[in-house]
């Protein structure tokens, strides 16, 4: 029951970005800004400059010791490599030349206090990140800000508070949460978390999925609306958050929570069942991953391999490029964890503007269509070959496959394969073993590649359709631009016809075809893909069992009929209405009933 003081509080409904799943009703625990006072300018006497440099170095050293302690604790608790990888990334930032050395240089050159110098350098780094169009890489700037906050806190001499010290089960509410914060969360004490900041690909979101905790991010000002002890409802599926709900609303959500939990238990039944239609047609369900900590969730939800391993994480938050040995270690770990199932590694899919401190770059008017992905790799064969050597050498530990992103034509693919063959020859000369028959595929995400899929299919081993960019490029829509987002239509007949033609080309030439974009994880879209003859779907962990339930609820003959029918419609609305009507005939989402 609510107390009188609680009853008087205003009921607040907020919507953010649900980045995991689940419904939680609990008491809020507000994590206030970590005691870092606003930074004030202080001009130093020349005799005090070196002492200030030493003070800054000491704060960096303490910060490193704190992260090392967290790392040791995680290892002791058996949380392992999945969480430690992110702490390692933060430790790398603490050694970054642009952040640390530039701050020292500003202290000495401008004779200012360490806090002011550090904030000044952070401002320059933010400006570099602001030039990046890609949402994933923009969100990596938050990692640097977390480290800056940690150093500032240590410069202030105030003690760090740990989320591991929470006494009772709570919903964590914070402006943002660093990976160090989320890695220390104890499931059971932390029921869910809500943040002002963040997006679907932020570290906070990735850790939420890895820990299987409900989370809503991007709420903008939740920390200004909530006090510790407030009752909050978190609906991580819809992104809804209700602060100080009435008893009637609590009752509604308690029933929804019960239904969702029953639904989750019912779905878990599908984990060990084969992903096949009722007439015996197999559809392989695989996982998308960016970081090693996502593997556990994928395995727990029955992933039959990794259909898309985004390898960019290895290149981020560091002062230099990853070495061949680092590539080998990263890919070997994933290969061993997923064995005997396959792992498809997409080669580097970032552009020169995203290497920041350790790369000389040039500005581009439109980076999304500029020097990125395979174009960058071909421009920098040294970086490309280092990654390819890592993948090839790791292939002795499991079934790895190589996928080239953003291929726009056959000549581009041939050039990439030529570099791969050169790399193989170098490894042979070095006496380093690898799988000589490793499969090489193309990510179909550019309309020109889709239109010549029949040509590409003759020279590659598999296709993987990346629906995120394929929709964006086909419809000329920036999917993160709120002004045109309404035109981003996954059911658009043009997009469906493009995908169908790619699948037909793959079938005709006897190569496998998968879909690895966000659409693959939605039952209504998965139904269409199965109907088109797609053999593999790759998605996030929490979509796997929902889609498996769909696959096991239909016959392949029914799906094929639907796949043919949708190509006759003229508008996205017509396709959507048709698929929705068919979906309800044989596939029921118990949670929403």
Describe this entry's structure for a reader.
The protein is built from 24 helices and 16 strands. The protein has 593 residues and is of the alpha/beta class. It has three domains: 4-34 and 161-265, Phosphohistidine domain (Glucose Oxidase, domain 1, 3-Layer(bba) Sandwich), CATH 3.50.30.10; 46-156, Orthogonal Bundle (Enzyme I, Chain A, domain 2); 269-592, Alpha-Beta Barrel (TIM Barrel), CATH 3.20.20. It has an eight-stranded mixed sheet with strand order 1-8-7-3-4-5-6-2. Strands 9-10-11-12-13-14-15-16 form an eight-stranded parallel barrel, surrounded by five helices. Helix 15 packs across helix 16 (410-430). The chain starts with a helix and ends in a 7-residue tail after the last helix. The model is unreliable at 1-6 and 352-362 (pLDDT under 50).
Overall number of structural domains: 3
Helix share bin? 40-55%
Please identify which CATH superfamily of the largest domain we are dealing with.
Phosphoenolpyruvate-binding domains
Overall strand count: 16
**How many helices does DSSP assign?**
24
Keywords:
593 residues; alpha/beta; Enzyme I, Chain A, domain 2; 8-stranded parallel barrel; 13% strand; globular
In short:
The protein is α/β, with parallel strands linked by helices and 593 residues long. It is built from 24 helices and 16 strands.
């Amino acid at each position: 029951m609510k107390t009188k003081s609680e009853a008087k509080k205003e009921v607040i409904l907020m919507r953010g970005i649900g980045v995991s799943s689940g419904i939680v009703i609990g008491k809020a625990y507000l994590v206030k800004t970590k005691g870092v006072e606003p930074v004030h300018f202080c001009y130093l006497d020349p005799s005090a400059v070196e002492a200030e440099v030493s003070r800054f170095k000491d704060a960096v050293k303490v910060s490193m010791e704190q992260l090392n302690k967290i790392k040791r604790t995680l290892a002791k608790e058996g949380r392992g490599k999945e969480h430690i990888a992110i702490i390692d990334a933060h430790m790398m930032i603490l050694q970054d030349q642009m952040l640390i050395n530039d701050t020292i240089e500003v202290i000495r050159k401008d004779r200012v206090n360490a806090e002011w110098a550090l904030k000044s350098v952070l401002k320059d780094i933010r400006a570099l990140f602001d030039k990046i169009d890609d949402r994933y890489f923009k969100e990596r700037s938050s990692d640097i800000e977390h480290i800056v906050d940690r150093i500032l806190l240590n410069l202030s001499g105030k003690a760090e508070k740990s989320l591991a010290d929470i006494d009772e089960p709570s919903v964590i509410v914070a402006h943002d949460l660093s990976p160090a914060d989320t890695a220390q969360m104890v499931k059971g004490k932390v029921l869910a978390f809500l943040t002002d900041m963040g997006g679907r690909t932020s570290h906070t979101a990735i850790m939420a999925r890895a820990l299987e905790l409900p989370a809503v991010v991007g709420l903008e000002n939740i920390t200004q609306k909530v006090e510790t002890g407030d009752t909050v409802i978190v609906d991580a599926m819809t992104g809804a958050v209700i602060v100080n709900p009435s008893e009637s609303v609590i009752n509604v959500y308690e029933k929804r929570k019960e239904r969702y939990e029953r639904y989750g238990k019912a779905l878990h039944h599908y984990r060990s069942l084969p992903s096949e239609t009722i007439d015996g047609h197999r559809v392989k369900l695989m996982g998308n991953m960016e970081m090693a900590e996502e593997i556990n969730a994928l395995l727990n939800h029955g992933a039959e391999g990794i259909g898309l391993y985004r390898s960019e994480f290895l290149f981020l938050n560091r002062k230099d490029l990853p070495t061949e040995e680092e590539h080998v270690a990263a890919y070997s770990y994933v290969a061993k964890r997923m064995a005997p199932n396959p792992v498809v590694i997409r080669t580097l899919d970032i552009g020169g503007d995203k290497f920041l401190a350790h790369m000389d770059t040039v500005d581009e008017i439109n980076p999304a269509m500029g020097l990125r992905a395979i174009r960058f790799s071909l421009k920098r064969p040294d970086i490309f070959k280092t990654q390819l050597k890592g993948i090839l050498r790791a292939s002795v530990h499991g079934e790895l496959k190589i996928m080239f992103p953003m291929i726009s034509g056959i000549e581009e693919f041939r050039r990439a394969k030529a570099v791969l063959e050169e790399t193989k020859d170098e490894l042979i000369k070095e006496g380093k073993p690898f799988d000589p028959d490793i499969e090489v595929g193309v990510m179909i995400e550019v309309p020109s590649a889709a239109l010549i899929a029949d040509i590409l299919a003759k020279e590659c081993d598999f296709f993987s359709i990346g629906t995120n960019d394929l929709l964006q490029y086909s419809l000329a829509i920036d999917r993160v631009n709120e002004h045109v987002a309404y035109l981003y239509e996954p059911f658009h007949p043009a997009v469906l016809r493009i995908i169908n033609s790619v699948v037909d080309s793959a079938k005709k030439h006897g190569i496998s075809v998968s879909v690895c974009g966000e659409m693959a994880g939605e039952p209504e879209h998965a139904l269409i893909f199965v109907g088109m003859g797609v053999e593999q779907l790759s998605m996030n962990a929490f979509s796997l069992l929902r889609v498996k339930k769909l696959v096991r609820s239909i016959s392949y003959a029914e799906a094929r009929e639907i796949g043919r029918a949708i190509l006759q419609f003229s508008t996205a609305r017509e396709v959507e209405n048709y698929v929705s009507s068919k979906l309800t005939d044989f596939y029921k989402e118990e949670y929403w009933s």
